[in-house]
Every structure is written in C-alpha cells, then in structure tokens.
Amino acid sequence: MNYWILYWVVIAVMVIGVIGTVVPLLPGTSLILGAILVWGIATQFTGIVWPMVAIFVILILSTIIEYLATYWGVQQSGASKWAQFGAIIGLVLGVFGLLPALPLGGPILGLLLGPILGAFIGEFLYQRDLKFSERIKPSFKASIGVFIGSILGNVIELVLSIIAVIIFVVTTWPLVSTLQP
Questions:
Q1: CB neighbour class for 79 (10 Å; exposed up to 12, middle 13-18, buried from 19)
Q2: What are the residue ranges of helices labelled H in 77-105?
Q3: What's the whole-model pTM score?
Q4: Per-residue pLDDT of the chain (181 residues; tens, 9 = 90+)
Q5: Contact criterion met (CB below 8 Å) for 164 and 32
Q6: How far is CA 144 from the centre of its chain?
C-alpha cells in the first residue's frame, strides 16, 4: 500500500470535513473523524493513539459547543421556550419542507432560515397578550438570538475542526515516510 497516496486522500477528506462544518448538509466533523479512523486502521494506529484520542475529544466537543452556542444565543435574547421549540420545528420543516419546492438549494436554505423563522413565529405566538405591533420586537429579538448563536457555534466548530486537522498533520507527517509500503 502506498501510504503517501492514502495520506493525501485522508487530508483531502479532512479539508472537505472542515468546509462541512460551516456549509449546511455537508458532513463536517464526521468526515474528519472517519478519515482519521481510516488512517489509523491502515497504519495499525502507529504512533497516533493519543493524538487520535485528543482529536476525537476536540471534534465531539465542537459539535456539542455548536448546539450550546445556539441555545446560548436564544437565552441571551430573552426568548421564551416557544421560540426555542419554534427554532427546532423551523429547522425540521425548513430542511424537509423546502426539499420538494427547491430540490437543489431548498434544504440548505431551509436549514439556514427555518430556525430563524421558527423562533420568530414561536415567540410571536407566545406574546399573544400584546398588541400585534408590540409582538414584533421580542419575536425579532428571538430570531436574531438564534442567528447569532448559530453563527458563533459554527465559528467555534470551524476553529476546533482546523485545530484537529493541524494536530493530525503535525503528529502524522513525520511518520508517513517511515511506514513501509
């Protein structure tokens, strides 16, 4: 087996994974984890056990942080539980609801807009005791909170994914040339 070819394929898959951390519906951390696992199996985990453990922890943590950041954004905006549920429902409906209407860009557009619109509608419904014009401001604030939290989560996930790839390259680069074909 030519380890150099495999190494560059693994790196390419990891780069696609890094891009996937910010592009909706493109696998992100799972591609990076899969590529590392393929490399580990191919090399019988030679010299990369502890770096692999660190990378796995970083990538799992990045996924958790992404969701917590969105939740934090909603909390900081003072949104109600209705806005939070609305964001979740909006996410699901956005992805699957726009699929038939826009097969190529629908799910991606739905993934981006669904939670924002869902949070807006959820908060709008929660504020039913207020006049129509008074319901707009808290609803808009809730949707902005979802947007900011989601952007913050994506940035953190992107940075942690890049760190994981750097750890992989730094720890495996010296070993590639020592592996026997």
A1: buried
A2: 81-101
A3: 0.77
A4: 688 889 999 999 999 999 988 876 677 888 998 999 999 998 888 878 888 888 888 888 887 887 788 778 878 888 888 888 888 888 778 767 665 555 555 666 777 788 888 888 988 888 887 787 788 888 888 888 888 888 888 888 899 999 999 999 998 888 887 776 6
A5: yes
A6: 18
